[in-house]
Amino acid sequence: MEADKKACQPLASLIGGFTHIPAVSTVHRSLLPGEATNATVGSMWLASHSEENAPRVMKELRTAVAECSKGFKTLGLMYGKVESLPAPKLGDEAVGYRITGDIGKQKMPMTYTVVRKGGVIAAFYGVNMLDAKKAAIPEPVIKAQLERIAGTAD
User: Fold this and answer.
1) Is the separation of the CB atoms in 88 and 96 below 8 Å?
2) pTM of the entire structure?
3) Taking the chain (154 residues) in consecutive chunks of 10 residues, what is each chunk's mean pLDDT?
């Protein structure tokens, strides 16, 4: 997924489920709510990078969030607003942001939390078509997933 603005490529790549710097390997998983009344759905993916590239992925992602606040296009779709969100204090570093996609006449806010631990980038994407304020994957879910990845969960 190529962005119309080079600075926005890290965002466009994550929309497509990959980091803009090619990973050694990537795995994707869907995240579904545990309760029938929760309309938030999303996905999580892990991207394994070298120790040099992983911090670069995060630095360039942080720059893209700042420089692309007015939006960008990819695959003919317009993403009209990018806003920085507080990132959880997890991993070695984390970035949080929301992108609002213009899908037809509807605005679709998509929330991302991206965490780096060593050479691994863990990206969490959430969307909720009923309540944009609930579009994020909750921090306790992210923390639990990161603990499982690290093999520290009970």
Assistant:
1) yes
2) 0.90
3) 94 94 92 77 92 96 96 90 94 95 82 95 90 83 86 52
